[in-house]
Amino acid sequence: METAISSDGTPIAYDRTGQGPAVMLVSGALGHRGFDQSMGELARRLAGHFTVFHYDRRGRGDSGDTPPYAVQRELEDLEVLLAEAGGSASLYGSSSGGNLALKAAREGLPVTKLALWEPNFLVDRSRPPLPDDYVTELEERVGDGRRGDAVEYFMTTAVGLPAEFVAPMREMPMWPGMEAVAHTLAYDGRIVDGFELPTAELEALDTPALVMAGGQTPWLLSGAQALARALPMGDFRLLEGQGHDVAADAVAPELIEFFAVAHEPARR
Fold first, then answer.
1. What pTM was estimated for this model as a whole?
2. How many Å apart are CA 93 and CA 227, to the nearest integer?
3. Considering only CA atoms, which of 212, 226, 193, 217 is closest in space to residue 255?
4. Domain 2-125+194-260 fold
5. Which one, of 246, 244, 248, lies nearest residue 219 by Cα?
6. Are 153 and 138 in contact (CB under 8 A)?
7. N or C, which end of the chain has less CB nearby within 10 Å?
8. Domain segments of the chain: what residues?
């Protein structure tokens, strides 16, 4: 494990493995190096081709957390990590981590290429939008010491799982790990910003981008397709049969191809 110090003094923990062009992995909600096994496996698969940076977003795992939270602080975390990577890197973001990676590219951070797995954008009526008070509800539950309730609210309101399916999850071995980082769910809530796709703001983004989805969740599929269309250098790829927690052996070949070869015109 290595540590980089962000501009507000927060330590950000990361693993650096492999050799070659730098690739940085950005986890989604609840994910970090000690919890997200699929992202860890992806790091191992990519390390044979790239120098892979797998980091804990602030407030998770071995990274610190300096209040008050702002999305800009997470962009500053990425900025210092990009400096550690030699000044630039390609980014792979999963779920809300994809929204964060996209924000980094939009902010002008030195992102060489951008690959996103099912970023959170709602462009149709295939599901209800997030409530206006979604972030407040999460923060109130955590502030009251009801971390489990915050996780359940995220699972039912953001993920869209039925309450009767989520309730038994409280007895599963993974639940305490989710409760431990429940305070960061509000961070991701601010990052996804109501699932709104900023189409007009993407017109000037000239970073080569690969947007992927598995097709099992309609709103994530349509959002990924719309994002790829909105990006001037965007390409869409469907990995059929993959759920939101995409398997490392399914996405790794796509990333190896995309990050390793010279960019070609997007396939529409």
1. 0.95
2. 14
3. 212
4. Rossmann fold (3.40.50)
5. 244
6. yes
7. C
8. 2-125+194-260, 134-190
